[in-house]
Amino acid sequence: MAATAQISVPGTDRKITVSTGLFIDNQFVPSVDSKETIECINPATEEVLCSITAASVKDIDVAVASARAAFNTTWGKNVTGFERSRLLNKLADLIERNAQELAELESLNNGKPVRLARDADIVDSVGCLRYYAGWADKITGQTIEVDNKTKMAFTKHDPIGVCGQIIPWNYPISMWAWKVAPALACGCTIVMKPSEFTPLTALKLSELVVEAGFPPGVINTVPSLGSVGGAAMSSHLDIDKVAFTGSTVTGRKIMAAAAMSNLKKVSLELGGKSPQLIFESANLDEAATWAAMGVLFNTGQDCCAGSRVYVQDKIYDKFLPILVEKASQLFVGHGFDEKSGCGPVVSKVQYDKVWSYIEAGKQQGARLVLGGEKRTEKGYYVDPTIFADVTPDMKIVKDEIFGPVLSVGKFSTEEEAVKLANDTTYGLAAGLHSNDAGQCMRVSSALEAGTVWINQYNLLNNNVPFGGKKQSGIGRELGSYALEEYTSIKAVHWNYGEKLDWPL
Amino acid sequence: MSSTFTHQFDTALFKGTITVNTGLFIDGQWVDSVSKETIDVINPVTGKKLTQVAAGDANDIDIAVKAASRAFKTSWGLKTPGHQRGRLLYILADLIEKNVDAIAATEALDAGKRFAHAQREVQGSVDVVRYYAGWADKNHGKTMETSEEKFAYTRHEPIGVVGLIVPWNFPFSIATWKIAPALATGNTIVLKQSEVTPLSALLLAALVKEAGFPDGVFNVIPGYGSTAGQALIEHQAVGKVSFTGSTFVGRKIMETASKTNLKRVTLELGGKNPVIVFDDADLDQAVKWMTFGTFFHSGQVCAASSRIYVHEKVYDAFLERFVVAANSIRQGDGFREDADQGPLVSQTQLDRVLGYVESGKQEGARLLAGGTRSEGTGFFLKPTIFADARPDMKIVREEIFGPVGVVSKFKTEEEVLELANDTQYGLAGYVFTQNLNRAIRVSSTLEAGSVFVNSTAATAPQVPFGGFKQSGQGKELSEYALEAFTQVKAVHINLGMTL
Question: Would you tell me which of A115, A162, B125, B395 could form a disulfide with A67, CB atoms 3.0–4.6 Å apart?
């Protein structure tokens, strides 16, 4: 008895059907003990799309039990790498098949343009699943020479077990793929909590999980409030690992809960205040393009958004107007408008938060060179906003805003640039623009960030790792490194020739 | 402008029609050979001609290598990123899987295999191609710490045009074992399949084209070893040859490589693989595995378990059961339900194996089963067992490549290990014992590239395969095979050293 909602696709007479129950054991089910629901809002219209079941603490228990049972019987060490690979590839094919519908649903719930959801987010997500499908049968350990006369030693890379995964609302489908793919490739089972703001595509993807042929319980989807489901998962005694992407504030809570419960393994992808450095030898037009894109892509709702730009003083006055021009070229509009390069921010909460920072910027004396005016129409729209002449103590320079708001500052020397860039508790990403190869090497080496882009920004690849230094996180996603997050090493010592002298 | 071979099957195990292009496959096109010569394709079950295929020689190899070179520089190599190379390989795997029966039927017909065996082998090829599809974007180099004044890293680059020479015993499988890692790592290919079994590689070429690989990435030249094969090995623009076949030819390849452009060489050669059956072995299981390992595909397997050492305590019991098993193998057309084993691949092979059987008799080994041709048409030899063999006998020292098991007795572990290792070969070794400590000790001591405990050869795509000593050099399967098709470039970027 699947409860469903019908969501109209603007500009067509089509409707997308979404199951609104919890996805446990390959079925959509109601909550076992709660009538709570979550309203899903369309940020472009501010209207309710539908309501979905909110998982309670007991529901989390049920989902974990399902994942544990699957891990012990049909998944984990009971399934070969080949089979895991086959299923992941099948899932990728199905997502590719349904790309248009998934993109539309993503846009309706998150606000981002359909075109970008389909041609960027989903293409990358399909690639991510295929990438990890390729790893599934290649998880190798070591055989280690100890003493050929007495002992053989080797390691096994076991799957960690049941993984709680908590994903954010900025890239619902991509973040789902980044977490699901390596976990399944390694043989783990999953309890997935999508963001309460954007649960719809995770629920739709759950249908494809069934169609692909994954055994029940391998992935379970339990939308719920962070304070309910997220907290329950972080402190659950039968979850072996929690992987979280979201704010640093919440990341701390999760790590604390993990420590106080069963010392579950934790990986965190948290916030950032990532700098881009524009050196005088840079191609100014290209650098301005990357700088604009770095803070405006996805309406700035990107953990690695390049939200601080520092320009070498010699080119500052020349660069700033180019940057302003590039930023104003981006059309911020409705997700179903083909012209839109980004959409509204995801929710009222975010909208208010971003505007409070814009006000703070004005109040603290930063020079507004673009934007800063609210729209009057419906929808949580924030237009590209650029503050120039910022100083390190300003709120807009220190805090993560998570919106299309850029702070631009100045530096003289390379040393000063690096110092400004590193003057943050975050360390997720950084960009530098320079045509001096030696400078590129020195600066990229000195920047305290998990990802450094040279003469580029924001473009990731599925086989290159991503993650934060400092308080931007723990662990890595993407690339071969993500496999380490989902494997647990067992060393086996096989004695065949040593007898112990006893007593010692 | 190409001709095709069409064959209709109406058998108990397979009904259907196959169509095979019989030209050379060069640069995405089917063409006649320059010489217009052809090679007859014989059905080993009947001894009769099935069709003929174009016979390539040095001229055709040259044209193919030029096409492969061009493709490498323009549309393959590092011009197509790893994840796209992987994608095409996945698509190819899907196409092979879709056409399993047609490919298996062609293979069984051409090579004299049982249809069911061919199906398993083709399905196994699907797994291998998928496995390497996954590696295509994961052939990482390294960055390494030297000093602050230097940034050093390695690049794992494809070699360029690689020559692949595949044999007649597992034509399709071995072709895929080679092409999958070669393509995954970005190389382009000129493949010369055996003139004895040319058909399945031609089907593979059609599927590669259908999958969407750019023209020139994969080229197939059926031809004789002494002409087409030799030309490929000599070619100055071929950077690497990967060969599976006899040790004799393997030597010539290495020699030719050394005399031309020092091309790199991977060799998968012969074996005289020892089996050791200890007195605590599960005898029934050992006999079953032995029957498979010695007589599968009429013993025409490089890793065949052909040299069997049995502990004296269980010697007679083993032989008794082994003989019963061998005698109950039913021989016949691979498309019949009542046939377990097919013929040898050719008259030449049959004559060779009969020669060894004669020598075994003359040198005084005790013949317990088989030893003669089977009645009727086709190159069938009865499953043959010699007992009481001595280390100096030809049948003990030389690779027979036929359905002949040679059994000897031993007393102690030390003695049998010496006997087992007393060979120029080193491809595989087999140990049957329930004592795991002994199994580990013995597998550590056997001089072989693969050791199987309590089974005979059952390879897996993730596990490397390749011989020690004169059984070859280099590995196939697993991650190790990537090295065969990769060259490592070190890059040093000076960050501050001045003179």
Answer: A162
A269 carries an active-site annotation: yes
Does residue B496 sit within a domain?
A: no
How do beta strands B38-43 and B48-54 pair? antiparallel
Average pLDDT over residues B405-413: 97
CATH number at residue B305: 3.40.309.10
pLDDT score for A504: 83
Q: How far B74 CA lies from chain A's nearest CA (Å)? A: 23
Which of chain B's residues have a Cβ under 8 Å away from the Cβ of A496?
436-437, 440-441
Output the pLDDT for position B2.
65
Q: Searching chain A, which residue's CA lies closest to the CA of residue B83? A: A131
| Chain-chain contact of A137 with B133 (C-beta, under 8 angstroms) | no
Contact yes or no for B440 and A463 at CB 8 A:
no
- How does pLDDT run across B49-67, given as a tens digit for each residue? 999 999 999 999 999 999 9
Q: Is A134 on the interface with B (CB under 8 A)?
A: yes
Three-point CA angle B424, B429, B431, nearest 5°: 140
Question: Which residues in chain A are contacts of B436 at CB distance < 8 A?
Answer: 496
Provide the residue count of chain B: 499
A438–B496 C-beta distance less than 8 A:
yes
Q: What is the mean pLDDT of chain B?
A: 95
**Closest CA–CA distance from residue A86 to any residue of chain B (Å):** 9
CA distance B491 to chain A (A): 14
- Select from A85, A131, A497 the Cβ nearest to the Cβ of B83: A131
Q: What is the mean pLDDT of residues A86-97?
A: 98
Geometric angle at alpha carbon B331, from B330 and B337, rounded to 5°: 70
In a domain, A465, yes or no: no
Closest Cβ opposite residue A134 in set B133, B440, B441: B133
| pLDDT at site A1 | 47
Under the banding of pLDDT at 50, 70 and 90, the label for residue B146 is confident
Q: Specify whether B481 is located in the same domain as B345.
A: no
Selection from B398, B419, B421, B401 nearest residue B409 by Cα: B419
Check CB contact under 8 Å for B137 and A463. Answer: yes
**A-chain residues within 8 Å CB-CB of B131?**
82, 137-138
Please choose, from the candidates A502, A498, A142, A491, the residue with its C-alpha nearest in 3D space to the C-alpha of residue B437: A498
Asked whether the beta carbons of residue B136 and residue A85 sit closer than 8 angstroms, the reply is no
pLDDT tens column, B274-295: 999 999 999 999 999 999 999 9
Do B63 and B176 lie in a common domain?
yes
* Domain containing residue A298: 275-454
**pLDDT the model gives residue B458:** 82
Mean pLDDT of B324-328: 96
Query: At B210, is the pLDDT very low, low, confident or very high (cuts 50, 70, 90)?
Result: very high
The tokens describing A394, both together, are 């300003």
Q: What is the CATH number of the domain that holds B42?
A: 3.40.605.10
| Contacts of A228 by beta carbon, 8 Å cutoff, 6+ apart | A54, A55, A56, A57
- Contact between chains at B138 and A152 (C-beta distance less than 8 A): no
Burial bucket for residue B295 (CB in 10 Å: 0-12, 13-18, 19+): buried
Rounded to 10 degrees, what is the CA torsion of A287, A291, A296, A298?
80
Does residue A503 lie in a domain region? Answer: no
pLDDT of A2 reads: 66
Identify which of A135, A438, A462 has the shortest CB distance to residue B495: A438
Output the pLDDT for position B145.
Answer: 86
Looking at the complex, report in whole angstroms how far the Cα of residue B215 sits from the nearest Cα belonging to chain A: 25
List, for residues A435-489, the tens digit of each pLDDT value. 998 899 999 999 999 999 999 999 999 999 999 999 999 999 999 999 999 999 9
Domain extent at residue B370: 274-460
For residue A158, the tally of other CB atoms under 10 A from its CB is 18
What span, in angstroms and rounded, lies between the C-alpha atoms of B123 and A351?
55
CB B419 within 8 A of CB B274: yes
